């Protein structure tokens, strides 16, 4: 008989009811146990074996807004604390381990000279000086300019700049100086920024343009007069106190300063228009002031076209800053007004062949390609070449712009030592004024033009240009500029730096009234200052950054205060120096700002040329 039961491991269990002994049955059970243990147990079997187990009660942490598992909370807090400790440890190591600082390279000579050259303009300021002027021996001066002359309509002519070593304000060279500074800022604002001088140079420009706005009715659309000059320098009429006869600090001037107005002065008005128009681009982010400058420039240029004449005709300006023509100012002023406004009428005027012909664009001459306060043709040709290189306006401008571009290439060739248009001194200075006195003002302008034209070519991916059959790299122009500026900074036979305060050997007897009279609380009258003029002692005040007139054609230089042909600095000369220095300064791979000058210029859609005339047999 057999009896069936339920196997506790889940299978059928048969128990035989036979006569087997207890030992046999025990061995059989042990075999069954081993067989069962050799099989894997599922969850149900385990529960049968173990019975009901105890479930662990989870613990939670109440954080107010949420309830989280205590285990997760501990892990999270621990992780945060460990990360904070690790971060603090790393920071401690970084702070305590000595580091090698990579210092920026020291400023190059051009940058150092630039910092100083700009300070000359601070020393030349007229009127009530700002607190940050930073020239200790200068103070407020000539606060009655305009008021002291009953014949003029312009009663507030304070401000502006004294021209040179005297206290006369000549608007013609002063406006050219401001135009040159604005041009350099438009092209090289990044380099000014790198030198830490961008705000300074803009402040210098604004001091000049604020004054120009006082010298004519800047709110009107049509005018009939402008101020040409404040002060007087002609001593041929006898020993009357004036700005040349007297040797006084500007702060001590007590004589009347006449105002010279002009009613037919195309050259002066067009140059002042160029100064305001170029400055409007510099200050384009100050919309109200920029528009004010543009309006003034338009008014001045209209006056220059309506009332033809040279400003220096029949007055003492012919002695000091005689203008030979106004046609070059027409091209120059119209070009700047086109860039400032985008108005095509100005471009049409600037590219009119008849005006260019009168300006001397189609003939050579001994001063062809020489940029100066008198003749701006070379500067205008470079500016218009810029337009052709980057905008390609096409018909109807292409023909005359190509001519200007070719002429620019020709006078760039004349700067190179391989050509004989201009002689050089034995020390290497190019004689752009053919051996006449005061040569450096022309040298610095040429250095600027050469560098900026070289940078134009690089920005246009043009490797160079042809001089006849010979091809020259654009780098040759920069090398020319460097040799000329290096000469001025001391690489010359006399080892003399012609920029005051730069280097160890520079002129100590600069022809300058304010620099030569000590600030000792003594007021020296008109003749009382003559002893300082004639003194052989060095100037008591250093007029930092002033570029003197320069050496003679034999590289000779006489550091004598009374010889202004060697030792007198000027606004126009220093403006050219600043422009050349900033163009050469810093990293040579940083070129021009290609687009800012075109901010107001609308997109160019060239007009198709007219069809050819019908064929006739």
UniProtKB/TrEMBL annotation:
Signal peptide: none
Recorded GO MF terms: cellulase activity
Reactions that this protein is recorded to catalyse: Endohydrolysis of (1->4)-beta-D-glucosidic linkages in cellulose, lichenin and cereal beta-D-glucans
Stretches for region Disordered: 1-26
Enzyme class, spelled out: hydrolase
Transmembrane segments: 72-94
Keyword Transport applies: no
Active site feature: 511, 559, 568
InterPro entries: 6-hairpin_glycosidase_sf, 6hp_glycosidase-like_sf, Glyco_hydro_9, Glyco_hydro_9_Asp/Glu_AS, Glyco_hydro_9_His_AS
Pfam family, one: Glyco_hydro_9
Its EC number(s): 3.2.1.4
Domain Glycoside hydrolase family: from-to ranges: 110-581
Keywords noted in UniProt: Carbohydrate metabolism, Cellulose degradation, Glycosidase, Hydrolase, Membrane, Polysaccharide degradation, Transmembrane, Transmembrane helix
Similarity comment: Belongs to the glycosyl hydrolase 9 (cellulase E) family.
Protein name according to UniProt: Endoglucanase
Organism: Sesamum alatum
């Amino acid at each position: 008989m057999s009896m069936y039961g339920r196997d506790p491991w889940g299978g059928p269990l048969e128990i035989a009811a036979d006569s087997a002994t207890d030992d046999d049955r025990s061995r059989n059970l042990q075999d069954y146990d081993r067989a069962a243990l050799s099989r894997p147990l599922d969850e149900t079997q385990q529960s049968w074996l173990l019975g009901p187990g105890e479930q662990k009660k989870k613990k939670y942490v109440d954080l107010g807004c949420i309830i989280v598992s205590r285990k997760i909370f501990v892990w999270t807090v621990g992780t945060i604390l460990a990360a904070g400790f690790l971060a603090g440890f790393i920071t401690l190591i970084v702070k305590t381990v000595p580091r090698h600082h990579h210092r920026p390279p020291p400023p190059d000579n051009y940058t150092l000279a630039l910092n100083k050259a700009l300070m000359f303009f601070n020393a030349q300021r007229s009127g009530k000086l700002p607190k940050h002027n930073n020239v200790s021996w200068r103070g407020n001066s000539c606060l009655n300019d305009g008021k002291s002359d009953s014949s003029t309509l312009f009663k507030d002519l304070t401000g502006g700049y004294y021209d040179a070593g005297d206290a006369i304000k000549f608007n013609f060279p002063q406006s050219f100086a401001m135009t040159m500074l604005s041009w350099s800022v438009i092209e090289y604002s990044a380099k000014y920024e790198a030198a830490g001088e961008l705000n300074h140079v803009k402040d210098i420009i604004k001091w000049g343009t604020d004054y120009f706005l006082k010298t004519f009715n800047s709110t009107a659309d049509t005018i009939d007069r402008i101020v040409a000059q404040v002060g007087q320098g002609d001593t041929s009429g006898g020993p009357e106190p004036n700005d040349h006869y007297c040797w006084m600090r500007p702060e001590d001037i007590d004589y009347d300063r006449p105002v010279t107005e002009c009613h037919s002065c195309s050259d002066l008005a067009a140059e002042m228009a160029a100064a305001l128009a170029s400055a409007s681009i510099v200050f384009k982010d100050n919309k109200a002031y920029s528009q004010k400058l543009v309006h003034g420039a338009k008014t001045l240029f209209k006056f220059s076209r309506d009332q033809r004449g040279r400003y220096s005709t029949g007055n003492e300006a012919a002695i000091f800053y005689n203008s030979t023509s106004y046609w070059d100012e027409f091209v120059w002023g119209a070009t700047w007004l086109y860039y400032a406004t985008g108005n095509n009428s100005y471009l049409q005027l600037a590219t009119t062949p008849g005006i260019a012909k009168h300006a001397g664009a189609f003939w050579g001459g001994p001063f062809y390609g020489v940029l100066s306060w008198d003749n701006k043709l070379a500067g205008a040709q470079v500016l218009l070449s810029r337009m052709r290189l980057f905008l390609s306006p096409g018909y109807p401008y292409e023909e005359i712009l190509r001519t200007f571009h070719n002429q620019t290439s020709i006078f760039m060739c004349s700067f190179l030592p391989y050509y004989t248009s201009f002689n050089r001194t034995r020390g290497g200075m190019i004689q752009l004024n053919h051996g006449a006195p005061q040569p450096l003002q022309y040298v610095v302008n040429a250095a600027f033009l050469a560098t900026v034209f070289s940078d134009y070519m690089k920005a246009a991916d043009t490797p160079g240009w042809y001089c006849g059959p010979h091809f020259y790299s654009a780098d040759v122009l920069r090398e020319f500029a460097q040799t000329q500026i290096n000469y001025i900074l001391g690489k010359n036979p006399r080892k003399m730096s012609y920029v005051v305060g730069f280097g160890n050997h520079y002129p100590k007897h600069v022809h300058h009234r304010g620099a030569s009279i000590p600030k000792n609380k003594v007021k020296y009258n008109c003749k009382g200052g003559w002893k300082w003029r004639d003194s052989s002692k060095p100037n008591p005040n250093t007029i930092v950054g002033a570029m003197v007139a320069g050496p003679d054609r034999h590289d000779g230089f006489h550091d004598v205060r009374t010889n202004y042909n060697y030792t007198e600095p000027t606004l126009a000369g220093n403006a050219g120096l600043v422009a050349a220095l900033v163009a050469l300064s810093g990293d040579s791979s940083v070129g021009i700002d290609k687009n800012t000058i075109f901010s107001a210029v609308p997109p160019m859609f060239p007009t198709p040329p007219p069809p050819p005339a019908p064929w006739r047999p």
